[in-house]
Amino acid sequence: MEFTPFLRTYVKWLVGAALVAAVYAVLWPREAATPAEQEALAEGRTLIVYWDRHSGHEHEARRALIDEFNRSQDEVYVRAVPVGYNALMEKLLTSISGGAPPDICALDGTIMAQLVGQGCFTPLEDFMARCPYLEQEDFFEYVWPMVAFDGHVWGIPTTTDTYCLLWNKNAFRKAGLDPERPPRTLEELEEYAARLTIRTETGFEQIGFLPWQPWDLTHMWGLLFGGTWYDDSTGQMVCADDPALLRMLRWQRSFAIDPKSTSNAPYAMDPEKIMSFQKGFGDYMSANNQFYAGKLAMITEGEWQVTFIPKYAPELDWGVAPIPAPAGAKPRAYSSTCVVDCVPQGCRHPEAAWAFLEWFNSPRPGGTSPASDYNYAIHNIPPRPEEAAQERFAADPEFKVFVEILMERETVSSPVMPAAQFMADVIERQRERMVFRKTTPEQALRDIQRTVNDQLARVRKLLERSAP
How many angstroms separate the CA atoms of 141 and 467, rounded? Predict the structure, then answer.
């Protein structure tokens, strides 16, 4: 197999020889790493490697289904490796460049979109044509463009998600708010945030709400405000002069207003004290998570919290509701991306990889598909509406709110382009600079547009140069 000059250069620049050796040693161990694998090889089975971008209990749920597949037949044996999210792109590029990629890799759709042009993945439409459960009309309308572009289907969507407003009911009670009535407008959200903020002599004991916690969702907020970041028809960022995006950034900055300011913001929050307070936030997947620990009274979060909260904060009394729509904007749902299963270019066993993927996405006789079971186990939303509407999902009152939003509202998401992850990183960096007074909202949007468009031009030039 030949790799593009861009791919070779990118890999060398990112990781170097030391990381190559580390990846081989850790992620591609000897042919049979366990007695079960030795037995599988002795039986004549094909051993394939699955890299999972999930970790912790989410990977264990995946592993349980992989174990079921391994028991269900005697031709293929899957080794599950929890690679995790951090540096997944670099590890994948390294493995492909070194000629030792996994047979299947689960990764975020934005990362997949960024790597497709570099020849990293095997097109899957011919494989998918064999499976009656993997047709375009089976998926949420917004999901399909995330995986099908440039004339091919590059990945199979396995999970999708959306975001809602979560609130701490005990914090509402202490602030004299009705614990069963969340804010319904942005104005109410600001009012509640002010009442829920508890100050100390040196900083904060609790902050009512911060739009960028626990995730930077500036891209989402811009779309919910009615703004446009990227023009699909021209392939260019067009955010610099968008009044809705400017209004959104000013709104975010209003949550970190200098106490000496004469602004009409709902409450004065010292930016330096906010930064100091954020440094005390604990690990996301632990009881010290800022929402679980009572440091943030309201957050915007995904449906996986239906599993996370009982696991890490079982005593927490919480609620979930749609994110209030900004005044004058159409209520929308947002899904940043989906997790996809891809077959890397150059993998050793594509047919065996497909055997697992077809099993994973097909209903068992008279039952549910492993893909649906996986979503239920980790409380992500299945990318197929028919599966998302299953009674076991709808029976959970909190989870039902997330699903209904995707079912009932127009859903907006990240653009499919060769710098999707780069765009997200630039937006986050400029939002942080803007909130903490290192730049203005106007300049932040100009810098986002210029920086991302420059990157898009570089990437496209490199891809054109490496094209046959």
Answer: 31
pLDDT reported for residue 1: 41
CB 386 within 8 A of CB 84: no
Distances in Å between the alpha carbon of 178 and those of 174, 266, 291? Answer: 10, 20, 19
Give the pairing of strands 156-159 and 339-342.
antiparallel
CATH 3.40.190.10 range(s) for the chain read 5-160+338-395, 163-335+415-463
Residue (of 246, 248, 251) closest to 446 by Cα position: 246
| Region of residue 151 (phi > 0: left; psi between -120 and 50: alpha; otherwise: beta) | left
Helix, strand, or coil (residue 226): coil
Q: Are 204 and 277 in contact (CB under 8 A)?
A: yes
d(CA 224, CA 352): 42
- Which of the residues in the chain have pLDDT under 50? 1-30
Residue 377 to residue 380: CA distance in whole angstroms: 8
Per-residue confidence (pLDDT) for residue 265, from 0 to 100: 54
| Predicted structure pTM score | 0.86
Q: How is residue 37 written in tokens? A: 């694998």
Q: What CATH number labels 5-160+338-395?
A: 3.40.190.10
> For 163-335+415-463, CATH number?
3.40.190.10
Residue 55 has a CB neighbour count (10 Å cut-off) of 15
Please state the length of the chain: 468
For residues 209 and 296, the answer to whether their CB atoms sit within 8 Å is yes
pLDDT of residue 263: 52
In the structure encoding, which two tokens stand for residue 44, read together?
């004549």
How far is it, in rounded angstroms, from Cα 1 to Cα 75?
Answer: 26
Residue with tokens 């300011």: 261
Are β-strands 204-206 and 339-342 bridged in parallel, bridged antiparallel, or unpaired?
unpaired
Q: Which two tokens stand for residue 269?
A: 């929050």
Helix, strand, coil % in the chain, rounded to nearest 5: 45, 15, 40
The neighbour count for residue 437, using CB atoms within 10 Å, is 12
- C-alpha–C-alpha distance, residues 282 and 279, integer Å: 8
Spatial separation of the C-alpha atoms in residues 292 and 282, rounded to whole Å: 10
For residue 310, the model assigns a pLDDT of 95
